[in-house]
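Look over this record as teaching material.
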Amino acid sequence: MSCWRLYALLIALLWCAALFLPVERSGQEWTTGMDWLTFGWLGMTVGQFGWFGNLLIWAALYGLCSVRPPTRNGGRIAASVLALLVLNTLFWHSTYSD
């Protein structure tokens, strides 16, 4: 197993573990990562685009597991988009309720 594939496996395992960890507390109930994965795409209706980082992570994992090692330009583009998504999530303040 190449070094890049080992990194991809580690990232995928951490991402899967994050699905079962608490993310936010609303009232007496904790919201898990799985809940955010399921409904996070609705955040774009209120200007929160951080959920789309999940799609980019899986695209990057595919790139790490491909036959050729990742190129610098591809890595820079992915890192730039992820940085913008992280900046967007810093402005998240609360979950909207019914």
Q: What stands out?
A: DSSP finds four helices and two strands in the chain.
